[in-house]
Amino acid sequence: MPARLLLAAITGMSLTATITTAALAQKAGGVLRIYHRDSPASMSVHEEGTIGVIMPMMGVFNNLVLFDQNVPQNSDASIVPDLATSWTWNADHTALTFKLRDGVKWHDGKPFTAADVKCTFDLLTNQAKEKLRLNYRESWWVNVKETTVNGPREATLHVNKPQPALLALLASGDTPIYPCHVLPAQMRQHPVGTGPFKFVEYKPNQSIKLAKNPEYWKPGRPYLDGIEYTIIPNRSTAILAFIAGNFDMTFPYEVTFPAAEGHQNPGATVGLSGRRGQ
């Protein structure tokens, strides 16, 4: 299963019981079917605070940096590049400069540049002309004084005083980069990202659908053709649907292994994977 898919599917430290089928193996094709408890108010990660939005939308976006999904426990040493290819602090640790990846496009075809990084952090620090309806993690960024750019491939976050945890906040699943050219209000209903999956539709109380981004900047990714989240608030109903073979994945503490082994898909096996998604 690709790292970005794991990131999209698993946020927080968890053990996840998964059903491994041919569609979930590392082969091209197939749609991952997941049940989802919540019908969120919007699809905007920066304006929502729960896994109800973060889980489905992380596959739509990229961060500057990311915790390595193949390392069981997060640490500064496990932070790896995403939209940034490298980063450096200045001598007094009050400026964090990122070199940015070339050739990345937003899902609408426009190029990703350093201006998008500035726009994102201007939004998060309430310095932008446009405002988030709810800046859910505003307190994370109170130490960020400003964001500057040096051409299209370099952006710098300037902080008032050294903040060792800043990189960890940037590597979390809560800090995707937003496009300059799409207004926050539009991101609530039809988010545009740079990630491996494109947003297709959200039907409140019904479903969230994503489709493969054929122009994703990571060669050969994603493996899946799409991800479909069916919204089922009732846990018992969701588990019965999982056991009946209507879904490919469940979550920790929601199903016993005997029940999972009774999953009505003859090609399915039960696996246990541990990841920290943020």
Q: What Rg do the Cα atoms give?
A: 19 Å
Number of strands: 12
> How many angstroms does the end-to-end distance come to?
17 Å
**Major beta sheet, specifics?**
4 strands, mixed
Question: What's the arrangement of strands in the largest beta sheet?
Answer: 2-11-10-9
Low-confidence runs? 1-25, 267-278
Global outline:
globular
Structural class estimated from helices and strands? alpha+beta
Q: Summarize the amount of helix as a percent range.
A: 10-25%
CATH H-level name... which superfamily? Answer: Periplasmic binding protein-like II
DSSP summary: helix tally: 7
CATH topology label: D-Maltodextrin-Binding Protein, domain 2
Strand share of the residues?
25-35%
Number of domains: 1
**Run of helices and strands:** HEEHEEEEHEEHHEEEHHE
Oligomer: single chain
CATH architecture: 3-Layer(aba) Sandwich
**Which class in CATH terms?**
Alpha Beta
Output mean pLDDT.
86
Concise synopsis of the structure shown:
By secondary structure, the chain is of the alpha+beta class. The protein has helices at 3-9, 51-57, 114-124, 166-171, 184-189, 235-243, 257-261, and strands spanning 13-20, 31-36, 65-67, 79-81, 84-89, 95-100, 144-149, 154-159, 197-203, 207-212, 226-231, 269-276. 18% of the residues lie in helices and 26% in strands.
What does this 3D model show about the protein?
The protein has a single domain (3-276), classed as Periplasmic binding protein-like II (D-Maltodextrin-Binding Protein, domain 2), CATH 3.40.190. The chain contains seven helices and twelve strands. The protein has helices at 3-9, 51-57, 114-124, 166-171, 184-189, 235-243, 257-261, and strands spanning 13-20, 31-36, 65-67, 79-81, 84-89, 95-100, 144-149, 154-159, 197-203, 207-212, 226-231, 269-276. It has a four-stranded mixed sheet, with helices on one face. A four-stranded antiparallel sheet has the order 5-6-8-7, covered by helices on one side. Strand 7 (144-149) and strand 8 (154-159) form a beta hairpin. It is globular. The model is unreliable at 1-25 and 267-278 (pLDDT under 50).
